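Thread: zinc ion complex, take 2
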Amino acid sequence: MAIYLCHEQPDLYVHEASVLAARPGAVVLSRSAFHPGGGGQVSDIGEIEWSGGCAAVTGIEVDGDQWWHLLDTDAVPSGDVELRVDADHRLRVASLHTTSHVLNAFVFAEFAGALVTGAQINGDGTGRMDFDLPEVDNDRVRALEAPVKEVIARGVDVNAIYVDAGDAATAEGLVRSMSVAPPPTPDGKLRIIDIEGVDRQACGGTHLANTGQSRPIVITKVENKGRHNRRVRFAFAN
Ligand SMILES: [Zn+2]
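Output below.
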């Protein structure tokens, strides 16, 4: 799957599909608006309904080109199904993920090109980013909460665009993560998330269409993780 359906149609939450493969408690579908997770971001969750029943989809297990939708039962769905993405979960994850780009941008600017060494976006309204920041006062990192909050409150448009992967590799700061670079599409394009005037970077995750869609977010903790790493934890303010 080169370009995810959830990238092409970010507002598609309910759709029909047919079962391509099944085992007890897991199913591969002809199409899926679920995001499979990756790069530290949890997958979408939701529901699946078929003629024989209904089950919660608790996550996605990626096996090559196959996305196994994991169920909360040992049922073996077959035939045509209706797939439903949990919109609240999607919004929580997309909010935290979009905020992580904003935080990343301010860290990158404040600390002269500091790179991300890891990230985790959870379904419970919390997330963290690790930065390569040797010998930096943690209070300076904590102080970035104010400009991050300002961008969320201001309501800045967020667009996904596709650029030539060769060009992106030469553009400073565009492919910023040290550990997770999203794969280009088969025709050599890289998906760029552009938060207007704030940040541009390659990413395959789920994001808001506007930063104002997020609830307020606060930095809850800045920790030292090894000599080079600073771990910044963040969460919804309430
Ligand atoms: Zn992203």
